[in-house]
Design brief:
The chain is of the alpha/beta class. The protein contains 12 helices and 19 strands. It has helices at about 15-20, 35-40, 85-100, 135-140, 140-150, 165-170, 215-220, 235-245, 255-270, 285-290, 315-330, 350-360, and strands at about 10, 25-30, 45-50, 55-60, 70-75, 105-110, 120-125, 125-130, 155-160, 175-180, 185-190, 195-200, 225-230, 250-255, 275-280, 295-300, 330-340, 370-375, 390-395. The structure holds S-adenosyl-L-homocysteine. S-adenosyl-L-homocysteine (SAH) binds near residues 212, 232, 233, 256 and 305.
Amino acid sequence: MMPSPLPVIRLKPKANARAIRHGAPWVYDNELVTDRRTKALVPGTVALLEDAGREPLALVAVNPASRIMARVLDRDSGAEIGRAWLAARLRAALALRERLYDAPFYRLVHAEGDGLPGVVIDRFGDIAVIQPNAAWAERLLPELVAALLEVTGVQTVLKNASGRARGLEGLDDASEVLAGRAPDAPVPVQMTGATYLADLTAGQKTGLYYDQRPNHAFAARLATGARVLDVFSHVGGFSLAALAAGAEWALAVDGSEPALALARGGAERMGVADRFETRKADAFEALAALAEEGARFDLVICDPPAFAPSKQALEAGLRAYERVARLAAPLVADGGVLGLCSCSHAADLARFRAASLRGIGRAGRAGPLIRTGFAGPDHPQHAHLAETAYLKALFFRL
Ligand code: SAH
């Protein structure tokens, strides 16, 4: 039996068909002929994208409710988007991670960068946490989960529906257990010499920030014998890596007491709790208070949440990054290092660096940029999407 023909959507004559042929992953609503039939497609429908001359371009997932109205699934328009196709993408993603890491703790799927638009999967041993942040993935979730169990052998699959993008796709925020049983305690994760406790059911994001792994490692290299301040610490990403590398002492500051409790739990498991302190506070207030106290550190890291989550929030976000730099720089001992991070894709590297320099300058400090870090390779960037290069980490020696 012939498969039923897919719905067809078509580019406007002026739209850039060549970009799609060269691998661009997204088609915006203003590039498409949006007739009544297209607008009526159920969000997440798989369709055939054609150019204005009716030549097939790609298989796409359509969401008429989203500004990104079509996401390229496969440039082979003869592909069949189902369990086997999903399994093939997952196998490719897994092969890369297995080459990169000794243990199965990593981001397994980084959305467009792994050919699964809008899908994020973090792996914690035999548990996977999936964020289906696009309508097509929500529709194909049973097939995706089946493929995930088959390819990776994980026992448990948790759905985290807290992603901001889900709202833009018209999806709800109901998290649930999709396979196996939710863990009843935080999961210990060995990374960069530290033990982190990841809360996979109530935590932020999917429990742990794997993206910072190479930057944790770089900071840890500088940390031997150092006094370390880890601001916006979450479960102790930078501070526990620093303690594992022989830091003399570390202070973690975060607004979330549950995150700090997990950080202390990790420090206990590592046997470094006597060198570790936490402070639950607003980071801006804590930085000002530490300056008042005359505190100085050899290494100060600030890794705030996305202050510029969208283009509209860019200016306010850049001011916030500048303020962090201005408040943190005075706490760095002479010859010490200040690490400033941004996970805002709207604030590109040049803008974030300029904002950081303004803040450092206004604090009356200066010094060379010794390293610019990015997310680790388990967060591959789609080569056509600068947006996925969201994480930047600048290390200044002051
Ligand atoms: N540095 C961490 C990740 C940080 S995520 C790592 O390497 O793993 C950002 C953290 O900032 C979250 O834990 C959140 O609770 C905290 N946060 C957000 N706004 C804050 C504020 N105004 N003051 C203090 N902490 C804040």
